[in-house]
Amino acid sequence: MVGMLNKDRFQVGSPSMINVDYFEEYVRNIYDNHWFTNNGPMVRNLEFDMKKRLGVKYCIAVVNATMGLQILAKALRVKKVIMPAFTFVATAHAFKWIGCAVELVDVDDTHHIDINKLDERLRWSNKFWGDTRPDTIVGVHIWGEPCYINDIKEVADRYGVKNIIYDAAHAFDVEYHGVKHIGNFGDAEVFSFHATKFINGFEGGMITTNNEKIANKCKALRNFGFADASGEHTLGVGTNAKMTEICAAAVLANMTNINTLKNINENIYNQYRLELRDTFVARVYEFGHTNSKYNYQYVPIQIMRPFSRDKIMELLNSIGVKARRYFYPGIHMIKPYSRMHKHMPITDEICESILCLPTGPQMLEDGIVADICRIIKGV
Predict the structure, then answer these.
(1) How many distinct structural domains can be found in the chain?
(2) Is 69 a member of any domain?
(3) Are 117 and 232 part of one and the same domain?
(4) Is 343 a domain residue?
(5) What CATH number does the domain containing 282 carry?
């Protein structure tokens, strides 16, 4: 059975189903137009298509999601963020890199920010921190499941937190409560089109907002601060965060298969759930905390005690199954954040036990999911 798994064949995350014919056509158009960057037609088409699909007023394509968070922070004049400890370190680094202070909060059993602890920290900060209290809440939609959007808004209003930003790197084409797409919440949200994401542009990101003032600031900031296309007038200091035409073409080509990919991901996720339902070795992460529509980009499983997550990962990797730890180590254990944050018991537990299994079109071969699950159960 182990011999059926070819080495280096599987990856974590869902590689996109790029439509090669469309992509080649788009690339030919790029060369025919002699327009490779600087807000070209591919980028403009992508922004237009994303506005229609997500139902949001403004989409700003950027070079990657990290830069998207930084541009947004500059546009909102963020000084200090408060955010969940369980996320990829890039979320925290994006703000720290540009001089923002970062405060971490533990998560709950759903892997999303613990609303009670967020409330407690903000109540404490309002009482003792004064002008140094957080001015921005950063929510993270982990595993493509929306975080507690309504609760975060209530807490922000209660303590006068002026900005809400969402890291939506995992959550493209996800609908909150099955009604409104992620991308429409808070002051703005940021998506990733990195090569490992549900829809990829090799590299790339997108800022979405329904606020015209924020959108205009972000458009200027991504292009050296220029106020218009002439490049002669600036609104202030900006940077170069423009998406290239080739990356926009890759996203557009991937979008042609998005519904098929979502169905494949959901079917594979359900196969894992079925295969692992009766084992005491691992438990598949259960979506449904916010009654939303998901993209099933990730298949996280929690390895139960006393079994070793790392030993199971090493076993799977040794036979070519690219399972990965997410997110390890926790941000609160990494410099420079470890100096201020120590006690994050739920985040610690998740970081020590979560393993993401491969998904996507390459997992459609009959019996592959069952074979992986048999290896896990056989531990």
Answers:
(1) 2
(2) yes
(3) yes
(4) yes
(5) 3.90.1150.10
Q: What is the pLDDT of residue 1?
A: 41
For residue 108, what are its two tokens?
């709950």
Q: Which residues contact 339 (CB under 8 A, 6 or more apart)?
A: none
Q: Are 181 and 53 in contact (CB under 8 A)?
A: yes
Query: How does strand 180-181 pair with strand 188-192?
Result: unpaired
Cα–Cα distance, 359 to 218 (Å, whole number):
34
Match 């070209």 to its residue by tokens. Answer: 40
The helix (H) or strand (E) run that includes residue 355 is: strand 354-357
Q: What span, in angstroms and rounded, lies between the C-alpha atoms of 267 and 15? A: 15
Last residue of a domain, one of 255, 279, 305: 255
Measure the CA angle with vertex 28, ends 22 and 30; round to 5°. 105
Q: What is the pLDDT of residues 103-145, one digit of tens each?
A: 999 999 999 999 999 999 999 887 666 678 999 999 999 999 9
- Residues (pLDDT < 50) of the chain are 1-4, 7
d(CA 58, CA 247) in angstroms, rounded, equals 19
Short-list 206, 203, 151, CA closest to 184: 206
Q: Tell whether omega for the bond before 15 is within 30 degrees of 0, i.e. cis.
A: no
Residues 279 and 324 in one domain: yes
Q: Average pLDDT over the chain, rounded to whole?
A: 92
Which pLDDT does position 176 carry in this prediction? 94
Report the candidate in 100, 78, 276, 286 with the shortest Cα–Cα distance to residue 164. Answer: 78
Confidence at residue 53, expressed as pLDDT on a 0 to 100 scale: 97
Domain with 190, as residue range(s), is 20-255
For residues 267 and 228, membership in a common domain is answered with no
Residue 10: inside a domain, yes or no?
no
The CATH number that applies at residue 140 is 3.40.640.10
**pLDDT number for residue 335:** 86
* Global confidence as pTM: 0.93
Residue count (the chain):
379
Summarised one tens digit per residue, pLDDT across range 240-258 is 999 999 999 999 999 999 9
Residue carrying the six token digits 């189903």? 17
| DSSP β-ladder status, 354-357 and 299-303 | antiparallel
DSSP 51-89: HHHHT-SEEEEES-HHHHHHHHHHHHT--EEEEESSS-H
Q: Are residues 247 and 303 both part of a single domain?
A: no
Nearest CA among 55, 296, 290 for reference residue 150: 290
